[in-house]
Amino acid sequence: MTLVLGIESSCDETAAALVTDGRVILAQAIASQEAEHAPYGGVVPEIAARAHAERLAPLIARVLDEAGVTLADCDAVAATAGPGLIGGVMVGLVSAKALAMASDRPLFAINHLEGHALSPRLADASLAYPYALLLVSGGHCQILRVEGVGKYRRLATTIDDALGEAFDKTAKILGLGYPGGPAVEKLALEGNPKAVPLPRPLKGRPEPHFSFAGLKSAVLRAKESGQYSDADLAASFQQAALDCILDRTRRALAEMGEVTALVVAGGVAANRTVRAGLEGLAAEFALPFTAPPLPLCTDNAAMIAWAGVERLAACFPADPLDFQARPRWP
Ligand code: KG4
Ligand code: ZN
Fold first, then answer.
1. Could you tell me the distance, in angstroms and rounded to a whole number, from the CA of residue 138 to the centre of ligand 1?
2. pLDDT tens string 19-77
3. Residue 51 Cα, ligand 2 centroid: separation in angstroms?
4. What's the complex ipTM?
5. Structural domains in the chain?
6. Is the pTM of this model over 0.80?
7. pLDDT in tens, 189-245
8. Please, which residues have CB less than 5 A from ligand 2, an ion?
9. Distance 226 CA to ligand 2 centre (A)
10. Where along the sequence do coiled-coil regions lie (predicted)?
11. Cα–Cα dist 8/282, whole Å
């Protein structure tokens, strides 16, 4: 059995997990900083870095304890090395370096997006390469062809906001607080998705890229007009966003070549309307549709540990102990 300790600290979740090559999560712990950032309507980098520094060590001790193992039982230490808020990434990566050095185990410096991209394989042993991945989170909005460990072809990205960011900004406009995605989804249930005329940025364009800034501005103008209820605004925003995703993903699938499945990952994959829409789209292409279970969709350390497991299995060399944290890492 191979066992990897994973660490995640790139945004506002401090997380540690122990994952085996048999796809068993022996233990995991996540400390959310939602309460600290809520008063500011978004993540404050300095507060995030301090909170990671305070919480990470006890969290790692807790998962080792819960799993009844020690560092010596681990075959590698994997940590998010970027992209993300640099202060937080450094806390996680430096901790991982120290643990790897002390236990004489290989260090894997994992790209956070790679964690999201491979997480569906942790949940589903039958998911084979290559698969189409729509990665929609607070910081990212991409369509990838996942061809193997370390082999990702990006077909689309956002030219401005990420989809989760658009949900969060819409929530702010509607006074729903942070994080906004779940609140917008809940309010949208009471509204009419056709009530507010909103744009579908880039819909129909040949390149499958995304844009959500114009949609958010349109929601703001509609709110300021005083003509619509908040529920109608939420439902109409969600519908417009979904229409954009479906149009863009349809275009990407058409030019992607053969894939085994359509997969959605990232925090917005928790949205039921988004999932249902994508399920329909997959059916159009006669593809199976999967989404990792919700706790694996949002930021977590199990996906980072799993990326380490996949690297070990593929005989990747360890990363050097002077590997630098990267705020940007496409
Ligand atoms: O993957 P994630 O936990 O962190 C990042 O790497 O960004 O994603 C968080 C994002 C936030 O923008 C949040 O509002 C959004 O995912 N989100 C949702 C839902 N749950 C989380 N957006 C729409 N509907 C949801 N149910
Ligand atoms: Zn993420």
1. 5
2. 999 999 999 999 988 888 888 877 889 999 999 999 999 999 999 999 999 999 999 99
3. 18
4. 0.98
5. 3-117+296-313 (3.30.420.40), 129-291 (3.30.420.40)
6. yes
7. 999 999 999 999 999 999 999 999 999 999 999 999 999 999 999 999 999 999 999
8. 137, 299
9. 35
10. none
11. 31
